[in-house]
Amino acid sequence: MTLEPIIRVDHLTHTYGEGTPFCRSAVKDVCLDIYPGEFLGMIGHTGSGKSTLIQHLNGLLKPTGGRILFHGRDIWADGAKIRDIRFKVGLVFQYPEYQLFEETVGKDIAFGPRNMGLEGDALQERVEEAAGFVGLPAELLDKSPFELSGGQKRRVAIAGVIAMMPEVLILDEPSAGLDPAGRDSLLQNIRSYHEATGGTVVLVSHSMDEVAENADRIAVLADAGVALCGTPREVFSHGEELEAVGLTVPQVTKVAMELHRRGVDIDPAVYTIEELHRALSALRRGGAPC
Amino acid sequence: MKDMIQTKSLTFHYPVEEGEPAPNVLRGVDLTIEQGSFVVILGHNGSGKSTLAKHMNAVLVPSAGQVLVDGLDTAEEENTLDVRRCVGMVFQNPDNQIVANVVEEDVAFGPENLGVPTEEIARRVTESLQAVGMEEFALHAPHLLSGGQKQRVAIAGVIAMEPMCIVLDESTAMLDPSGRREVLETVGRLNREKGITVVLITHHMSEAVDADRVIVMDNGRVAMDGPPMEILTQVERLRQLGLAAPPTVLLLSALQKDGWDVSLEALTVESCADEICRALGA
Questions:
Q1: pLDDT by residue (tens digit) across A154-166?
Q2: ipTM above threshold 0.90
């Protein structure tokens, strides 16, 4: 890609508890480019450093080594500007529903943009638009967030970040704890948001299936570093390496790998049911034996 | 087999202000869970599965109907302690159920409260930590452990009370695949080796594959009940209930619709590959 990255992670290191017996580098010498308009999936098991990494992207954590560049500029070069970065790189934490605090859903969503200086109709418009993106019906805006279901609360929290119209939207495990129907509908909302705004989305997940279905590119984190980075197909063609770092390839890829191993002429890196279905249909039409 | 947990026309609504409508979260659940079995309860959010779980150790008691745990009526207050000694519960968020600053003290918390003698507590703590593979962390601080490790400590704390049954209420929902595997392997082993009854509440279909029995909840009622092979292969019915069949079954179902002669009864990668090869070879 010849595009300039919107965010460049440049030899980032973060060490917790330096000078104590618990001293540990959660992120070690990581380099990663995030491009404007892409949908990047970030995956890694617990303790792989992904939460520490994303908290650097909007300046919540300060690198103990290396730099974070936003549009080519070190975000810590001028300490006073870090507040702007937080508006431009919106971070939705894990279980964001625990962070709701306002009297009404509308006020909660308005909190971020209001802090950016928006008011009146412009603010109201922003709130309604953000609520629309996450599929929250307008009549919920006057309700207390605490009257909503868990899934709805999570949508409110995500809308609160979308309402700031960040250039980069980072979501840490947005579907954790949701049932399959809730998960699919939330991810569909995020995809539509991405398509409608052309904004950059970073989806952190530990579900391979989830990133496979949504991301243009996947970064796999392991042992405080980036182990693999590429298109889903490139990443899933390293099935054994993924398993070695405690991750698994999607079930469908496992079936394809197994068929490939048995001599069936199938690309072992396919990762969606539709794709494998198509490949098998083509194979059968060709009359290939097993 | 002896009945571990029995619910009879179990109905429940959360308390409301007088005059307000009280919607039933459970509407007549009749279930018998046999001692020593491994039961997975599935259902979308709001189906009532967690509310049902909370009735299994008297965290909640029925609004109508009855719950018997090892023959004891959970609604009788004098039975509460015995019921909780019998059925241990592991919750969703590992950070909400750790109480001490050192792992072994956390595991000792339950038996201490049961008035178990000190030497006996020491034995149980050691054995429980061994059972979940966390013995080398006995003197560690729980907040520095991973999510999967914390859940295993929480399970050790439950095992230390020597319950006959463990109920896991979405205890894997916040874990990554390896943490989830750690917890599942741990409870699977406790079930096989110690004969502890396991009731696992989840919406991860993959966790149901190895169960003895799968129950699907919907709208406060039991919608499906049977062995995994029978339940997980019902693609359409599961979709109606807000769940998805395993990817292997979905793939075979798509092929079947195209006229492939394949059976949907393939819950593992190997059996799915077997079916496809057989059909291709034919």
A1: 999 999 999 999 9
A2: no
